[in-house]
Design goal:
By secondary structure, the chain is α+β, with helices and mostly antiparallel strands. It has three domains: about 130 residues, Gcn5-related N-acetyltransferase (GNAT) (Aminopeptidase), CATH 3.40.630; about 170 residues, Aminopeptidase, CATH 3.40.630; about 55 residues. α6 crosses α11. The radius of gyration is 26 Å and the shape is elongated. It starts with a strand and ends with a helix. Belongs to the FemABX family. This is Aminoacyltransferase.
């Protein structure tokens, strides 16, 4: 084996292998996003004796104190079950970085530490990846820990994932809880549709995202942050928009009312109606009354807000083996139409239609108690029957040890001053 810098073509051919479970931050398209952020990028890999790539990683070189932080965001990409391969990579990486004016190196591999069911019970057939953690530590890396909170300095360590292999949309839907099934069916009955936004329509997503951001009070991502990905990821960035056409909905609802009234009138004409028939008539009257209220509300909305209502939108990334939910936003005013549910249901079906084996709802804090900051997010994803995956976490290693000590000391002083 030999450690070497890779060409973009060599790198891309390797990470596109679905068996490697590479993250969307480790695709070639991320090279341009990192460069536009002002960082240099280097592709570092291993080749076997037949000159075939067997490990690779996209590293950003981040200028810091006259040196560089080498950061592999969700990398390296390799078979982490092969501890000998990992050991060789880490050893050769250290030799390389010693010659590159590197202050420290940071990695957060896209590798599972433990798997749980939706109720956070460990699955019996998966062992914790302690051997891998210990291997990193044996090479002088510090593990950031098995965190259970969001940290702005780290990627999320917990994810909610739907495994689609061996499933169909119908069989998967049966596993959703009653609220998920009910709300998806509501959206379908309302006639909610989903289409993909073009790049020049991205402001429609941003509008819904900013509304959600203000409502939830979370930390802002700039427009430039999003556009950086959208500009560079091409067809690997998917931008679904859930919307309702009120003109179409009003026509369909009026036809439904007419049909129910006709059936009700026909039943009323019968003499000597049984209790069962009377109950049926009462139920139809109730449905008609409900539909008329919905029709009036939709008609009023059409007058004030127009015929097309944008309900929810998202940014997804597709890589070689999964579709990953990145960010989303929705309109609280139109929440009765269940736009977010239709968006997720559409994208789950997109995975089936395009051969993806995983639908990744992505981030969770890891704190699953009712008092946690994202308990509502967990409850939402749990309702879809997700498998919870705990990633292995962040690893740091100082290369210039004295300078790294000074770097940490200054950082700690700054944090104390801010407090």
């Amino acid at each position: 084996m030999k450690f070497t810098e890779l060409t973009v073509k060599e790198y891309d051919n390797f990470v596109q292998n679905p068996a490697l479970e590479s993250h969307y931050f480790q695709v070639k398209e991320n090279i341009a996003t990192r460069e536009e952020d002002g960082f240099q990028v280097v592709l570092l890999g291993l080749k076997d004796d037949d000159n075939q790539v067997i490990a690779a990683s996209l590293f950003s070189k981040i200028p810091t104190m006259g040196s560089y932080v080498y950061y592999s965001n969700r990398g390296p990409v390799m078979d982490y079950k092969d501890l000998g391969l990992v050991d060789f990579y880490l050893r050769e990486l250290d030799t390389y970085l010693q010659k590159q004016n590197c202050l420290y190196v940071k990695m957060d591999p896209y590798w599972i530490y433990q798997i749980y069911d939706k109720d956070v019970n460990p699955l019996p057939n998966h062992e914790k990846s302690d051997a891998l953690v210990n291997l990193f530590k044996s090479h002088g890396y510090t593990h950031h820990g098995f965190t259970t909170e969001y940290d702005t300095s780290s990627q999320v360590r917990w994810m909610g994932v739907l495994n689609l292999d061996g499933q169909t949309p119908a069989s998967l839907k049966k596993q959703f809880d009653s609220q998920r099934k009910r709300n998806i069916n509501k959206a379908i009955n309302f006639g909610v549709k989903v289409r993909f936004l073009e790049k020049d329509e991205f402001d429609l997503f941003l509008s819904l995202y900013r509304e959600t951001e203000e409502r939830a009070g979370f930390v802002s991502k700039t427009d430039e942050y999003f556009y950086n990905f959208i500009d560079n990821y091409g067809d690997k960035a998917l931008l679904p928009l859930a919307y309702i056409d009120l003109d179409e909905y009003i026509i369909n609802t009026q036809e439904s009312i007419n049909d129910k009234e006709a059936r009700r009138d026909q039943m009323m004409q019968k003499e000597n109606k049984s209790d069962k028939q009377l109950k049926k008539i009462a139920e139809i009257d109730k449905q008609i009354e409900h539909d008329k209220k919905e029709l009036l509300h939709a008609s009023e909305l059409r007058l004030t807000d127009g015929s097309i209502l944008n309900l929810a939108a998202g940014v997804y990334f597709a890589n070689a083996y999964e579709v990953n939910y990145f960010s989303g936003g929705s309109s609280e005013k139109y929440n009765q139409y269940m736009g977010p549910y239709m968006m997720h249901w559409h994208m789950i079906n997109y995975c089936f239609d395009h051969g993806y084996g995983r639908y990744n709802f992505y981030g969770l804090s890891g704190d699953f108690t009712e008092n946690s900051e994202d308990y509502g997010v967990y409850r939402f994803k749990r309702g879809f029957g997700v498998q919870i995956e705990e990633l292995i976490g962040d690893f740091y290693k100082p290369i210039k040890k004295s300078k790294y000590w000074l770097f940490n000391t200054l950082n700690n002083i700054r944090k104390k001053i801010k407090k």
